[in-house]
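Ligand-bound model needed. guanosine-5'-triphosphate.
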Amino acid sequence: MSASLEGLVTEGTGGQWRVLGPDGSTVVASMRGRLKQGREDDGGIHKLAVGDRVTFEDAGAGAWTITAIHPRRSRLARREPGGRHGERVIAANVDQVVAVFAAANPEPHERMLDRFLVSAEANDITARVVVNKAELVGEAAVRARFAPYVNAGYALDVVSVKERMGLEAVHDALMGRVSVVTGPSGVGKSSLLNAMYPGLQLRVGEVSESVNKGRHTTVGGFLHPLPDGGAIIDTPGLREVGLWGMEPRELEHCFPEFRSVLGTCKFADCAHQGEPGCALMALVGHTVTAARFDSFQHLRAEVAAATGRR
Ligand SMILES: Nc1nc2c(ncn2[C@@H]2O[C@H](COP(=O)(O)OP(=O)(O)OP(=O)(O)O)[C@@H](O)[C@H]2O)c(=O)[nH]1
Ligand SMILES: [Mg+2]
Ligand SMILES: [Zn+2]
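Prediction:
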């Protein structure tokens, strides 16, 4: 009879999970059969994800079994296309999403940033924006370009790994929290994490996620515990987050700077597409930028098309 241990899921797909135990070592474990047979509508907790806290035990002969999944305090999930029971948990117990872009090389795409932020908002998870390679255009230019995000309420860190500028603020923001770090390839995510935590030794300058490209079932990621508490989760999942199953009404609330006027348009079903008395459109050019409003319209068209297909 072996003792039960508590651990943290750091990686896993295809039924095998890496679990970090209390002594700091990692074992490969599989879920006890009974857990696997849980139903979709039991809260989804039976579907294990990176970031989950679990109870596990020695099954003998080098094998380990996960016997319980602990309740989650949050999760980053995407709904599955076409299914109303469908949500796939990308990571569990996430405190924040850190969206990393480069000031240049590669050029930042605000539309993609907006998509990451909407994904975080839809899951009630805080998000912050980090812009690296600031030395390429200068800090002032970065702050000017990303001002709409600060106005929307997001924390913005302007950094340069190359010049070791701004790293301390990001370090403080990560400390003690579980952060999903995401962003396009080549912006310097691995470089940034290595600069703050040399022990991580992440590979730099390679397209590290290419293994997962085109495999849409693979939404697993890696959790790296941080030496001073907290962890970072590196997942390809968020990049593929479609906004399936989201209603246009729900999308509006995922833009924090829209919230104060939602529900106050002249028409209750206002789509904010030129209707008279639209309170949201009245903000464009003032507290809502044309670019963010444009992003909203694009995403709105996407969710409306997906709703129509269901
Ligand atoms: N100019 C400049 N280049 C940087 C800076 N930080 C990182 N780089 C370079 O950017 C390139 C990509 O860095 P990575 O850390 O591999 O980028 P990544 O975001 O982890 O990319 P993926 O793993 O593919 O998602 C490397 O050649 C780095 O040396 C910076 O502050 N300034
Ligand atoms: Mg990388
Ligand atoms: Zn309106």
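The chain is about 25% helix and 25% strand.
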